[in-house]
Design brief:
Order of helices and strands: HHHH
Strand content: under 5%
Largest sheet: none
Shape: elongated
Structural class: mainly alpha
Number of strands: 0
Helix content: over 70%
Number of helices: 4
Oligomer: single chain
Radius of gyration: 31 Å
């Protein structure tokens, strides 16, 4: 039982997943700060402060839901552009290697036939 637990906990996939979750959380904090502290104030300067929290339909406060949707769209857009820039940065350092296929040589059987034919001529 202990051996199985050790195998499970220290499998490459589990460790990779743990690192991904931790990095994802930290990256999420960076994206949230970028949206809340940089992007949203810029939008606020252009079109006014985007706050829908006071919108209600009867006793249902849908304004917070609208705020969440707007925040999601902004975060998704920012994340899209960050991923595009990161992809471009990763490909800048790499040179594309063209694969030149060399023609396949004769098979072993073809070589033996050629040797046999040469010996037969002598």
């Amino acid at each position: 039982m202990i051996k199985d637990l050790k195998n499970f906990l220290f499998k490459g996939n589990v460790l990779d997943l743990a690192v991904a979750v931790i990095i994802g959380g930290a990256f999420g904090a960076v994206i949230s700060s970028l949206v809340e502290d940089v992007i949203t104030p810029i939008i606020g300067m252009i079109v006014g402060q985007p706050d829908f929290s006071s919108i209600k339909i009867g006793s249902i406060a849908i304004g917070n839901f609208i705020n969440a949707i707007v925040n999601f769209l902004i975060v998704g857009t920012v994340l899209f552009f960050i991923v595009k820039v990161a992809e471009r940065a990763m490909t800048l350092g790499k040179k594309e290697k063209t694969i030149i296929e060399e023609p396949a040589g004769p098979t072993q059987e073809e070589l033996l036939i050629e040797i046999r034919d040469l010996l037969a001529k002598k």
